[in-house]
Amino acid sequence: MVRYLIEAGIIVLGIIIILKLIGIRIIPNNKIGIVEKWWSSKGSLKAQIIALNGESGYQPQVLRGGIHFKTPLMYKVHICPLVTIPQGQIAYVFARDGEPLEPTETLGKLTNEGNNFQDTKAFIENGGHKGPQTEIVREGTYAFNLAQFIILTEDRMYYLPMESKSEEVAINKMSEILTQRDAFRPIVIKGSDDKVGIVTVHDGPSLQSGDIIAPIVGEDSKNKETYHNNFQDPENFLRAGGFRGRQYQVLVDGTYFINRLFATVELIDKTIIEVGYVGVVVSYTGSKGKDSSGVEYKHGELVQNGYRGVWEDPLMPGKYAFNTYAGKVIMIPTTNVILKWISDQNGNHLFDQNLKEVGLITKDAFEPLLPVSVVMHIDYKKAPLVIQRFGNIKMLVDQTLDPMVSAYFKNIGQNKTLIDLIRQRNEIQEQSSKEMKIKFEHYSLELEEVLIGTPSSSRNDNKIEFILAQLRDRQIATEQIQTYSTQQKAAEKEKELREAESKASQQKFLTESEINIQIESNQGKAEFQRSLQEASKIKAIAEADAEREARVGIGRAIAIDEQVKAYGGPQYQVLQDVMNKFTQSIEKAGIDIVPKTVITMGNNENGGEGANAFNMLLTLLMGEKLGVDFDGTKVENENVRKIREAIFKSMENESKDINKDLNKDDLVEVKMQDETKRQSASTKE
Predict the structure, then answer these.
(1) For the domain with range 336-462, which CATH number is right: 3.40.50.2300, 3.30.479.30, 3.20.110.10, 3.30.565.10?
(2) Tens digit of pLDDT for each residue in 117-172?
(3) DSSP string spanning 203-234?
């Protein structure tokens, strides 16, 4: 049994030895075989590593997965892994063999026949260079000849060791540099970060003397091959004449697969110009431009945008991918700016952080400190002129505005007393605003307003507070007078309020009493009207009676006058008076002279009227005065009868027509005549 086992082992060992001698090699599919030739009839290589023509040394072709026959008597096969680059990562290539680099070159040039470094022979035969390569390897799996190429990825390095310590040191150093630059991943610039990429190229010719930044290349060329695709195509960049160094062109938002051995990228903030500002650009690069400031402007040159110098057109509010290494953007506020000549009071812009109160010497030898504020703004079109003239706003304020404003108010202060400065503050503000506006326009500034505060004491003058205290006491006294006057008015109003409230509380009773008063008044007026009506009636009756009596008196007077004339004159009037007195005596005595029974004595011959006592008495008296003799039966003569009838008839007619024929004036006149006649008659009597 043991014999059989020994024989079987010898057979297996023999087979293995035979297979080894034949050179059967099995290479897995995830591996490659790098062939190293021990000897060749063509001899060995001297300066090269890769044997392109069958010489001894590393062969350019690699063995892929499968069974291969390579006799160990001539070949040595090195099993190496395939190179796998993960998604979103970059691999760098270092070539061990090829053309040496030029003194000014940093990276090996790209060859179009190298099949992305997988055809070693084509790479070398087409001029591939030794050292780090400009072309990078993107994600994927590759069968590289690791004897020719060293592949550096983020996770590991792929290469076939050759027992060279210097090479190993160089490879490790390059790997460290790439790791520091985060070179195994693409450059990602996010729009939300407001960043811009500043590119520095490490290959190509150096900049010309006087240039600090490399100009943009490829944009003016009609050949599209010269475009370098934002530095992702180093060969085209170099072919288009690109220079090494910091580039004027920047990278904006996006993802860029840039060989970090060729170019590095620095992320800086975008230039953001807020609303209310403009950006004046001072360019450090570009060709010399034509001055556009005009002949009269002697403070520098303004150039068109893109040339070296101060650009004539400022940047308006917005975001700009501006290369701050190629120029400077000075923010100029276009809104109102308040500059305060007040200690420890500064605006957010800090333009006035070196300003303090203006020291004055007044006409009355006081030395107050005057706080001043100036409101100004800069026209955005004139902002480049201001920068060209002063450099920046801070220098403008410190070197020009501060001495100008201080000198102006010192001149005003020496012509004013301290009280004038306080009382005439408004006038001084208006005057200074008008006069200083012209001065500000000379410096391309727009002055809006000058504001003046209250003068305060300085270290050299502590009596200002005493003057101000007196003014305050005076003002307090004036305010107290107004306060007392107002309080007096308030007290009067309060009194009126209390009266109104009392009246309101008693309004019901006042209303009732007013209504009662109105009722009583109306009743009184009614009684008064009734009294007036009755008085009018009584007056009318009295006037009528008086009128009637007057008319009767007139009639009597006329009758008497006629009787007097007819019967002898005054004697008849005497008789009439005697009769009147006789009648009055009878009336006072209450003697009845009229019989209770009237006996007519028959008809008379002249009308059938019966005689009565009055007729008889009248007849007797008239007959006696007229000289007619008669007895009790004798009728009076015809003349006497006619007179009597005429008198009675006249008296009757006058009594009826008295209200129609006479007015009040006639009545008065008649009465006066009657009274005159009566007095005359009395006198005669």
Answers:
(1) 3.30.479.30
(2) 889 999 988 888 998 999 999 999 999 999 999 999 998 999 998 877 888 888 88
(3) SSPPPPTT-SSBPP-SSS-S-GGG--TTTT-H
